[in-house]
Each structure stands twice: as C-alpha cells, then as structure tokens.
Amino acid sequence: PAIDDDSAPRVRVAVLSAVDLKLQAVGELDPYCMVTVGRQGMPWAAKVAKNPHAKLPVCLRERHPRWNAACTFPLSAEVSAPGAAPELTVRVMDAHATRADTVLGEVRVLLR
C-alpha cells in the first residue's frame, strides 16, 4: 500500500550483496531479495500485504549476488506510533519457474 503523506517518517535501506549462498538442492541458485518494514513479530505474509515492500532483481545462476540497490519506505502510522516496534526484514529467496520460491535466509532488524 502506498502512503502519500510526505511528512511520514521514512527509512532508507541499502542492499548490497549476499555471499556464499547455499544450494538447497541439485541445480543452480537464482536469488532475489525482498525488503519490507512492518511491526515487530508480524508474520512475513502480513508484513508484505500491509506495508510497502521492494523486490530486487533476480540474479541468475549466482551464489554471490550483487544488488547494490537502495529502497526508501514510508513508515505507516501503525508502525511509527509511539510504543510501536518497527522492524526491517530482508529476505533472500531462490526463484523457481515450476514451483514455489524458497527462502534462503532472512534478517530482521529492530528500528528505534
């Protein structure tokens, strides 16, 4: 969902790269990155559904992907309210053409 209020607090995130991604099975990795900000403890699907998010490009056949991308997210009133615990989540996924994409790793950072 878009937030049109220019006065809303924002967070800017730089996603540079990943190193030594592990193969989950036989084949090659096609990693991409998803980034979002939501309330701490919120399940991934709810974070992505309720908050702005970014999907970085797929890096074909790459165990050491480089995105060198920056994303800016406005923080919703729910996330930026006093007492709220906003959390940045970065998830690295492996893209698949014939089945659901798989999670390779995730990091969550509490924003203060």
Automatic annotation (TrEMBL):
Domain of life where this protein originates: Eukaryota
Segments forming domain C2: 1-112
InterPro entries xref list: C2_dom (IPR000008), C2_domain_sf (IPR035892)
PROSITE patterns: C2 (PS50004)
Short name of one Pfam family: C2
The protein, known as: C2 domain-containing protein
